[in-house]
Amino acid sequence: MTYIGIIEKEEGALCHIKTSALNTEGVSMAFTCSSFRGYHALPEISRKADIIIVGPTTDLEGLNTLVRINKEQPKAELILVLTGSNEQLVLKAIKAGVVGFLNDGFTQPLFHACITHVKAGQSFLTADLQRRLFNLLHIEHMHCEDRAKPNLLTEREADIVRLILKGYTNKEIGECLFISHHTVNEHLKRVFRKLNVNSRVKLINKVVADFNLKE
Predict the structure, then answer these.
(1) How far apart are CA 139 and CA 74, in angstroms?
(2) C-alpha distances in Å from residue 78, one per residue of 25, 55, 141
(3) pLDDT digits (tens, 9 = 90+) for 1-26
(4) Fold observed for domain 155-210
(5) Which H helix or E strand runs over 82?
(6) Would you give the distance in Å from CA 135 to the centre of its chain?
(7) Which Pfam families does this UniProt record tie to the protein (predicted)?
(8) Nearest alpha-carbon partner for 193 in 160, 152, 163, 136
(9) What is the residue extent of each domain of the chain?
(10) Which pLDDT score, from 0 to 100, does residue 86 have?
């Protein structure tokens, strides 16, 4: 059983998220509250959840809540519900530890897909959000001639990361670089290992935090 907590001040949005959660197999409610203050007022045992959903939000209020929750419950996976298009907020949320994103008004199948991915330790971004987010990013100096440093990317690995950040699939990357899908997968495994990440969202997080970006 996966226990979900929800922090949302708008009754309609809270009801939508809660209904979606209760209609998802293998999910049970841990808590619901309208603010971080309300969350903190809960008994400590009631605040424990496998996944915590915050939103919808268009500003830093929800983001600050996520940061504080991540410090208190580092083992809980975080999902943010977004209102409108705000890629900059998404970038900041990724840095705050968010691994799943949904737009307000999401459908039940989309909610189920998000929960399934997050439960499995994977990240979740809708295809549209991925495209818009990746288009913001541009990497410079992602490789170095000094091969003695294992944490630095080769030129080919850097090329693949650049294409990932533009929203290319592995198949599209292979076609663009004239290499096989299998070769792309092998390069990507090495990239993940070098950067100590295990998903594309966490790769973005690493890039945002550690590398020189032009947004």
Answers:
(1) 29
(2) 19, 11, 31
(3) 999 999 988 889 999 999 999 999 99
(4) Arc Repressor Mutant, subunit A (1.10.10)
(5) strand 77-82
(6) 16
(7) GerE
(8) 152
(9) 2-126, 155-210
(10) 72
